[in-house]
Amino acid sequence: MKILVTYALDEECAGVTFAWHDVSVLMTGVGKVASAARLMQRLASSRQDLVVNVGTAGSVRHEVGEIVLCDRFEDRDLKATRLPGLAFELDCSSDAARCVSSRCPYVRGKCSTGDSFVTEACGDGCDVYDMEAYSQAYVCRMMGVPFVSVKYVTDRIGHNSVKHWADKLADARRDLARVFEPGMLLDLPSL
User: Which of 42, 65, 85, 133 has the most CB atoms in a 10 Å sphere around its CB?
Assistant: First the structure.
């Protein structure tokens, strides 16, 4: 099985391996456009069986250090336009159901993606806030590739988020690498 692990910045890259699987990594860059373009380019040139996005996120619902398995996504920039008929949500829970282990201890949640670093709480009901996951989920949906995203909460939104994000990167890399230990997250033979 060919698995592509994506991350926005080198500082977020966790050493991820899956026994018996062909794993490659892709640094997408920060933001929706860079992320979508680089992922589309890779998927167009190299077919993958699964894309797993790993990275950091802010939250108002979860504590720093928690890990959230995201299987639903929204584009908060598109949502803000409020144009009738404009889709701004993606549900990838069926992808997660096919590849996530029944023993996975992580809470599942919804990720809000936008081209800005969220520094103030917004009561939209999302679990985590990032800058890439929705665009990657969208590309994967277009290309017919299953997608899941794993986010480490580095900061509580509204509490000096930018500084806390930078301070928590080493912890994020360590804990995200643990997510991919056998039996923790993925049950790949079921794909």
Answer: 133
**How many structural domains is the chain composed of?**
1
Residue 32 near residue 129 (C-beta atoms within 8 A): no
Q: Are 57 and 132 in contact (CB under 8 A)?
A: no
Instruction: Name the least confident of 36-40, 44-48, 67-71, 116-120.
Output: 116-120
Query: pTM for the full model?
Result: 0.86
- Report which of 5, 48, 10 is spatially closest to residue 30, judged by C-alpha positions: 10
For residues 150 and 176, the answer to whether their CB atoms sit within 8 Å is yes
Q: Is the pLDDT of residue 138 over 90?
A: yes
Cβ atoms within 10 A of the Cβ of 91, count?
14
Query: What residues have CB less than 8 Å from 137, skipping those under 6 apart?
Result: 73, 90, 92, 147, 149
User: Could you tell me if 183 and 22 are in contact, meaning their C-beta atoms sit under 8 angstroms apart?
Assistant: no
CB 30 within 8 A of CB 131: yes
The whole-angstrom separation of Cα 96 and Cα 50 is 10
* Domain extent for 10: 2-190
